[in-house]
């Protein structure tokens, strides 16, 4: 049975704040909005974050694409999704713009930004993700103006992303990398994966331009691994960035090891 949306009241907002929604960072951050807060979120989904090690709440395919790219970036330190904006400030900005502040059930809502991103060097950026169809609606544009001015007042760059150029192969590759990043969900101890990874990296380094599938099978035979362990180990290594792929396409087992870079240059 679908879950009914909880009616918004000032008491509800106070309760969410007391629960720690919108507070913390890294593994301790709690988004202001979670998927289960609504009866139906359409294309909403959860992803395990590589950088934070926690479940990320994403409200659309576009948000997922942006998140996966951010989570794979070495310049990104932390990603906080559905980040709440100070309500007193957004109300003042709406008044200045002469537009209604977003409300629900007669209560001014707490507006959110899709992503607040912490970068190396102490920098930050805020990101809103919308479709081009979204922008055809005046009300959406009004709310984005409030959000933009909010971050501008804080000296934090705000970016509006309306189109994410990610083909299906790249999307599947990023999803796979995210799924393999954490060893906490794997039954084999981490030290065993590390030993396998070391052996496989040596084999790759010693066999340039070698058919990848053949190399994996050879390593499995040499080390008496169960069939399939080679590809599992390689996917784990790719998730850790050791080695890296030279393109954003999915791993091609029929191609050579030249599609991989050990980063030794």
Could you write a compact summary of the structure shown?
The chain has 265 residues and is an alpha+beta fold.
Description:
The chain has 265 residues and is α+β, with helices and mostly antiparallel strands. The chain folds into 2 domains: 10-161, Trna Endonuclease, Chain: A, domain 1 (3-Layer(aba) Sandwich); 168-261, Winged helix-like DNA-binding domain superfamily/Winged helix DNA-binding domain (Arc Repressor Mutant, subunit A, Orthogonal Bundle). The chain is 38% helix and 16% strand. It has helices at residues 10-18, 61-72, 87-97, 138-153, 168-180, 190-205, 212-223, 229-240; strands spanning 45-48, 55-58, 76-84, 103-104, 107-108, 112-119, 124-129, 158-161, 244-245, 260-261. The strands form 4 sheets. A 4-stranded mixed beta sheet has the order 3-6-7-8, sandwiched between helices. It has a two-stranded antiparallel sheet with strand order 1-2. It has a two-stranded antiparallel sheet with strand order 4-5. The longest helix is centred in the middle third of the chain and has 16 residues, at 138-153. The protein is elongated.
């Amino acid at each position: 049975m679908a879950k009914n949306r909880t009616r918004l009241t000032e008491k509800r907002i106070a309760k969410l704040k007391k629960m720690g929604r919108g507070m913390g960072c890294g593994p301790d951050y709690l988004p202001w909005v979670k998927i289960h807060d609504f009866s139906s979120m359409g294309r909403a989904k959860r992803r395990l974050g590589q950088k934070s090690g926690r479940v990320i709440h994403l409200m659309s395919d576009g948000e997922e694409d942006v998140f996966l790219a951010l989570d794979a970036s070495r310049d990104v330190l932390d990603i906080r999704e559905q980040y709440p904006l100070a309500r007193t400030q957004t109300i003042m900005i709406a008044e200045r713009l002469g537009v209604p502040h977003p409300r629900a059930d007669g209560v001014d809502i707490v507006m959110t930004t899709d992503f607040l991103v912490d970068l190396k060097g102490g920098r930050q950026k805020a990101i809103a993700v919308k479709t081009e169809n979204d922008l055809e609606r005046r009300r959406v544009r009004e709310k984005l103006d409030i959000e933009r001015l909010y971050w501008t007042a804080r000296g934090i760059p705000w970016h509006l992303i309306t189109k994410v150029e990610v083909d299906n192969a790249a999307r599947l590759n990023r999803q796979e990398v995210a799924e393999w990043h954490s060893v906490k969900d794997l039954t084999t101890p981490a030290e065993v994966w590390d030993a396998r990874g070391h052996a496989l990296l040596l084999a790759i380094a010693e066999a340039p331009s070698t058919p990848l599938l053949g190399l994996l099978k050879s390593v499995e035979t040499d080390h008496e691994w169960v069939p399939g362990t080679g590809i599992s180990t390689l996917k784990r290594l790719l998730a850790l960035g050791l080695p890296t792929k030279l393109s954003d396409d999915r791993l091609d087992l029929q191609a050579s090891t030249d599609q991989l870079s050990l980063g030794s240059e």
